[in-house]
Amino acid sequence: MNVNRDVFLFVALAVAWGTAFTAIEVGLESLPPILFAALRFDVAAVVFAAIVLATGLEWRPRTNADWIAIGVGGGLLVGAHFAFLFLGQSYVSSAVSAIVMSLIPILTPPLALAVLPRARVRAPAVFGVLVGLAGIVVIATAGGSLDGQALGIGLLLAAALSFAIGSVIIERTGGTLPIVSLQAWAMAVGAGLLHALSHVHPGERLANVSAATPATIGAIAYLGIVSTGGGFLLYFLLLERVGATEVSLINYATPIVAAVVGWAVLGEAITFATIAGFALILVGFALCKIDALWKTAGPVVGYGPSRPPVSGVVNGDPCADHGVAVDGDGNVFVASTATERRCGTPTAD
Question: How many other C-beta atoms can be found within 10 angstroms of the C-beta atom of residue 208?
Answer without folding.
Answer: 10
